[in-house]
Each structure stands twice: as C-alpha cells, then as structure tokens.
Design goal:
Blueprint lengths: L4 E5 L3 E6 L8 H5 L19 H8 L7 E5 L13 E4 L5 E10 L5 E10 L41 E6 L5 E10 L6 E9 L14 H5 L5
Parallel strand pairs: 4-8, 5-7
Antiparallel strand pairs: 1-2, 2-3, 4-5, 5-6, 7-8, 8-9
C-alpha cells in the first residue's frame, strides 16, 4: 500500500498527515483553526497551540489521516477501551479501537486506532474511504439490519482485525460494537462481514451482492 505522509515538526509535537486518507471531515480546522489552515502554506503550524490541545484535536480526526508524536514527554494516543464501527449515513464506516487491517495471508497492512473504510465501492484508495461516496450518489441511512442489547457475556476491547476480502466484504474478527448512524441501535459480536460494494440489501452487513454485481476491490 503506497503511503504519502507529510510531516510538520513543532517544538513539542510533530504532526503527520497522510494525504490519501483525508476525506476533509475538517475536525482539525474547526478545532484549531490557528494550527490547521488549508489556505496557508504550510497548512499545519504545530506551535500555534499547546501540545495537549493539539493532541486532543488530532484524535478527533475520524480517518486517522492526522497523527501526532509528542516531543515534550507527553502521553501518546491511547488505544480505545472498546472497538466500535460507526455507520455514517450516506458515508463510510468509521472504525475506532485496537485495529489491524490484514490481507488474506494474515500480513498486517496497517495498525491504527482510527480509520474510515469505504462502503460505497467507489473509492480509489480501497479499503479506505476517499470521499467519493458523494460523487457516486451513495445513499444509505446508516440504520442496522441487525441489532440487539449488549449480551452479558460480551467482553469489550482487545484486537480487532479487519480483512478486506478480495472482491468481497470486510471480515471482522474480535469484539466489536457496530453502531447505527443515529446512535439508536447497536450490534455486538466477535465476527461480522460488512458490505463494501454498496449493493447489499442488509447494509451495513454483507448479503453476497458483491458477486451479483461483479464487485472488483482493486
């Protein structure tokens, strides 16, 4: 996987920006406009805010395009205690937790705590969202085809592996809570197959439609 990462070194914090994973959610610009200004060069000025403030805003970036490294001895980003998948209305799957994206052979493609996965099938940076759901006129309310209360035996946390199956769904293994777009419903489990072709009638879950439409993941 080709990765273009820009680095902005400050006195207390180094900010890293992975261009292809950014979908312009603009959490950074809204949170600290004095640091993040797309109309300025360089567009990131780490020393324009306190280190703790800067780290907190970067952790609000839902795609993981922004990362930080503390140079002042401050704490790194903590791994979330629970793995969650937020289903965005008309948009991607926002995943948070102890995430490993792996290929079919089990090799790790990426480790992160925040990612946005394409579920419309149109991204040119698969398995990640690149914002093309808008151009593709992808429509889905983000409701859950399956839902239920949190089981008593459910144990949150631990590693969540995501395998983007070739020409197929996202195969999830590990404790995970999948949340509807409006936050009113959740699915809890240790395995799930989530649609990434955009055609499933059981969104966000896979129903095999990728075969019918000839979905190609590369």
């Amino acid at each position: 996987m080709s990765r273009k990462i820009q680095e902005y070194e400050g006195r207390d914090v180094t900010v890293r920006y992975e261009v292809k994973r950014c979908i312009h959610a603009a959490e950074c610009v809204r949170g600290l406009p004095q640091v993040f200004d797309p109309d300025r060069k360089p567009w990131v000025v780490p020393d324009a805010a306190a280190a703790d403030q800067l780290a907190a805003v970067i952790m609000r970036c839902p795609t993981g395009a922004l990362q930080f490294e503390r140079q002042d001895g401050g704490p790194p980003e903590a791994v979330p205690a629970e793995n969650t998948v937020g289903v965005a209305a008309d948009g991607p799957l926002y995943v948070k937790g102890e995430i490993e994206i792996v290929d079919d052979g089990g090799s790790i493609i990426l480790r992160d705590t925040r990612i946005a996965l394409c579920r419309c099938g149109a991204s040119q940076n698969k398995p990640f969202c690149d914002g093309r759901h808008a151009e593709a006129s992808f429509r889905d309310t983000g409701a859950l085809a399956e839902s239920g209360p949190r089981p008593d035996e459910y144990e949150a946390g631990g590693k969540l592996t995501v395998n983007p199956a070739p020409n197929g769904p996202f195969l999830l293994q590990g404790s995970v809570e999948i949340r509807s777009a409006d936050g009113s419903a959740s699915f809890y489990g240790s395995k799930a197959a989530l649609c990434r072709c955009g055609a499933s009638n059981k969104k966000p879950f896979c129903d095999g439609s990728h075969k019918e439409i000839g979905f190609v993941s590369e």
